[in-house]
Amino acid sequence: MGHRAAIVGAGHTRFGVLDAGPRELLRTATRAAFESVDRGVEGREVGELFLTTIGFGGWQIGNVAAVLAEETGVVGVPTSRIENACASGGFGLRAAVRSVESGAADLALVVGLEKMTDLASPRRRYWLGVSGDTEWERAAGLTFAGVYGLIASRYLAEHGVGREALAEVAVKNHANGARNPNAQFQKVVARETVLGAPRVADPLGLYDCCPVSDGAAAVLVARAELARKYTDSPVYIDGVGAGSDHLAVQERPELTRFAASRRAADEALRSAGVDRSAISFLEVHDCFTIAELLAIEDLGFAAPGEAARLTLEGATRPDGRLPVNPDGGLKAKGHPIGATGVSQAYEAFLQLRGAAGPRQIPGAALALLHNVGGAGATAAVTICSGG
Amino acid sequence: MGHRAAIVGAGHTRFGVLDAGPRELLRTATRAAFESVDRGVEGREVGELFLTTIGFGGWQIGNVAAVLAEETGVVGVPTSRIENACASGGFGLRAAVRSVESGAADLALVVGLEKMTDLASPRRRYWLGVSGDTEWERAAGLTFAGVYGLIASRYLAEHGVGREALAEVAVKNHANGARNPNAQFQKVVARETVLGAPRVADPLGLYDCCPVSDGAAAVLVARAELARKYTDSPVYIDGVGAGSDHLAVQERPELTRFAASRRAADEALRSAGVDRSAISFLEVHDCFTIAELLAIEDLGFAAPGEAARLTLEGATRPDGRLPVNPDGGLKAKGHPIGATGVSQAYEAFLQLRGAAGPRQIPGAALALLHNVGGAGATAAVTICSGG
């Protein structure tokens, strides 16, 4: 169906427990994105800005998009915050595509950011909880690990699958993270370590949960026709899709499928005119190991229950037939909430230019990026292709 | 330049100290918008949702756009939160225009919401403060009234104007609010009452400040070509514009002009192909009386210092040559933060259809809506015309 926009530059901080504050994280990711543009770019070429963050900890909850304009050196241009919890980044990409498609800007900047680790544990739980349903879940004491633990229990029971399938997601993503210099965890873990770790929310153990992370990621999105002004190797955005669901999981007809992901994927693939069989790799929202299995199924790459088998067979490893999360995913790379969706686009930018180094997927040509808000209440999907 | 989108329905709750919680406010405004559509509309015709709120008080800070999908009965469709502090609503309108222009949706719903009055005063100050600069202003104890007090002091000194000009803004907007059944304050006040009221932040007194308010407003934005499917009297959106500025006022070259408003107005008028002389009335962001004077000047309707004279002459009254805030403005109508920009579009919907009742501006044909975030760090302007 043609290209809708082009990523012409991308930057990324390390994800992890960082000394840098939120302004420094924004600045570092943005500068890296500018510096990555092959033929160079001036700040004044950027016509619109999008900041995706939940403003974790409350350092600057309101009007924080103005901070991005300051740190980018383009004070004056339109700047907006898009917030859909952990899916903020994916929705920010979508907004940037519309900005350049509408002609409002020739070049838009999307930066995702979160600074999470400088809060003590009770405040951190509060700020994590506010992305899930407040009235029926958070106020009743249900954490995200608790919600995903319920979902995982149901999945394992429904499909007669053991915890090994979950563990294999962690093992694979840790192995991938070990090849990503920006990942929070750059170490391999053994399946026994994962299975033997303390339980967080049964059946999920410590290694089934993504960490709490600081970090930022930035991408420069140009009008498709202008891509080659900036680089000979643009990465195109060919399709975007989004969906929603009831905020509280109790309102949904089934626990083990996220309708929002399904709808977002269908829309994105249809708008790109792309078949699932053509996709080279997936970046999915594995906030918990169970979430990666759900994603593979909801996105239409496996029947219900089949993602567990695919994973145990090794099909989702970098050398498998459907690589998933080559950058380590949320599990090993880390999950600075508002940054995650933008970080997925950063990985697509590297992989589809053949610039992913030791974690390069040979011949990667089409990527599907999948970003989820809360426990599936919002989802965004982006289809990217190499230039 | 042609119509970019059409408002085909609009709804509004009363603004004020309300018993209703945030979900009920959302639902009430949305239902009213649906019921206002002359030829009727089904929920399933809505293709995308935008919720504009700062999530005051933290009832549901993250992923709150999913609540809008639930309350609108269209769970499944893309829903996003756009947050730019007090300018959220204006940026939400702009996002809805892009949604229908891009063909993603035929009909989009924008709902602005805030529930502010159920917090005790210290928490309320915190939640108001988070929309201004945190590092240099809020953390140092500077409130919004404090910032606007500094700006007002400077304005009065620069232009040799007395507090009477500020007071006249309050008197006029209270008189307008008295004709608006949704206004928080529906009573006229005398200039002596305004001038004699307790000082809040010199030179601003109690009547120079907008109140703390609960409320919601909703508009249905259709593709321009589809407008007449819904009504014979659509209100078109012909131009949108936005701008940004340094978050902290100390970083700006001058205190008494908001560059973001200037840029937003220039872009909106240019994109609409409309001359200032053709504008029938303004809806401006009068969070404090001084802000209305700045707005009239920044938007290009008066030279620096001249807005005070225009106001004292009565030019901005409903029967003057440039009516400003016929609905009572933030000052008298109330200012539920995320709802304000959408509420301005509601007023345009009434006025430009000749349906504003006792506050109707005769012959109103073109409206300029102006929405500011924080003390001018973000601004959005929308140009509307009658069908």
Instruction: Give the count of structural domains of chain A.
Output: 1
Largest interface: A-B, 54 and 54 residues
CATH topology of chain A: Peroxisomal Thiolase, Chain A, domain 1
What's the helix count of chain A?
A: 13
CATH C-level label of chain A: Alpha Beta
Q: Which radius of gyration of chain A do the C-alpha atoms yield? A: 19 Å
Query: Using DSSP, what is the number of strands of chain A?
Result: 11
Helix content of chain A: 25-40%
CATH architectural grouping of chain A = 3-Layer(aba) Sandwich
Q: Overall 3D geometry of chain A?
A: globular
Helix/strand-derived category of chain A reads alpha/beta
* Mean pLDDT level of chain A: 97
> How widely separated are the two ends of chain A?
15 Å
User: Stretches of chain A where pLDDT falls below 50 for ≥5 residues?
Assistant: none
Q: Strand share of the residues of chain A?
A: 15-25%
Read across the widest sheet of chain A, the strand sequence of neighbours is 3-2-4-7-1-8-11-10-9
Question: What name goes with the CATH superfamily of chain A?
Answer: Thiolase/Chalcone synthase
